[in-house]
Structure formats: structure tokens, C-alpha cells
Amino acid sequence: MENKCIKRLIRSKSGLRIVTTDDTNKSPFLLGEPHWVPDKDSVCCTDCKKKFDFLTRRHHCRRCGRIYCKNCCDFRLELPRMCFVDPVRHCESCADISRKENEFFDKELKMLTGGALFQLIKLPESNEKRSEFICRLSQDHRYLNFDGSVEEEFEPVQLASIMELNLLRSPDVPPGMFVTYMNNEGTVKEMTLLAPPDCNKNHTISWLSAMQNGFKMATDSRNIS
């Protein structure tokens, strides 16, 4: 389930950004631009406390919006969570966060949209044969889709509707995850996804780890917005 996502190029005070025209279709991993601390409210660098003057100029971190001197805000990094086209200025603490997140955007996101093989267990579990399918993140990053030879069609799960996601790490249980979410009717549902016996376990474990990182990032975006 994906809606056509129309994007446009805009110029903000922080730089060029490519954003969706409709916020309802934006990726759940994205963050809005922060409020900038006004120049008049900052007489010294947030980090080193050096006073601003004609030679020591003010610079805003594009991620947190706080004001620093050039030396404390001279890290230029990609910031895909805010849709910037070019690398933008970061303070040191924000640079550390963006470096870790960029690993997700550069590597793990592609893995999630590629998918992994699972068996679906609906709760309460029945004695029916477990069907195998590919669980993958939609290209707009908003849904978990289930593709494969399932006898009954399983509705995509909106990432924003997931309330809890826990990885199954017990040595007695195949790699998998337990998900609690709310369906379109507003009913809380639970499901367990387990790796089939003959799947590539290393790929499945990597996919699950990426999914957990994505869920944390989406939850973080919801809490900030």
C-alpha cells in the first residue's frame, strides 16, 4: 500500500531541501527543521563559551538550531532525516548522531526495502501450516508489506501504527520479532514473525536489527513532532 509521493525542491534558511508536498505521505523517519535560537539570545558559543564579536561569528547547527562558534560547528555532514540536498553544518554532538543515522540511511534502509523471508504466526496461534512470505518495507518507508504465497492476503502494517516491536533472541526460538500494532479499525493486534528453517539466518538477523533501528527512529520522529 503506497501513495504516489510528489516532492518539490525548497530553499530554507538552512539550505536546499527536497520535501513531500503532502506531509501525510512523508517517510516516518524524517524530522522537521529545528527552531533556530535567535542571534540576539546568544552572546557566547553554546559549547566552548567563547564570546561572539566581530571576529568570532555565530553559526547555527542545522540539526539542533543552537548557536556555536565556527570551530565548534564546523562538521559538514549529510542530513537525510531533514531532506537536505547537500551536507550541512553540525555541532559536534549532533554530528555524532547524524553519522550513526547515516549508516541506517546508506545501508540498512536498502536492506529493509529488499525484505527477508519469514513465517507469520497470528495470535492465538492455530495448528494451520505456517505460510512463508517476504516481509519488506515499502518504498515510501510507511508500511510493512507481506509478499508471497500466503493463502489469505495479509494487510500491510503502517509503521506509524506499531506500538511495540521486540526482537526474539532466545536460542530455543528462530530469529524473529514480536509486533504489537493498531489496525485500520483501531483494534490492537499482535503478530510474531519467525525465520523459516531453511532461510539465510545471517541476512534475517541483519534485517531484524535494521528493522529495530528503523522502529526506534520512527518512534523518535513521532515524539519530536
TrEMBL record:
Key words, A-Z: Metal-binding, Zinc, Zinc-finger
Domain of life: Eukaryota
Record has Cytoplasm as a keyword: no
Chain ranges of the FYVE-type domain: 39-99
Gene Ontology terms for molecular function: zinc ion binding
Metal-binding recorded as keyword: yes
Span of the signal peptide: none
Protein name: FYVE-type domain-containing protein
Organism the protein comes from: Cloeon dipterum
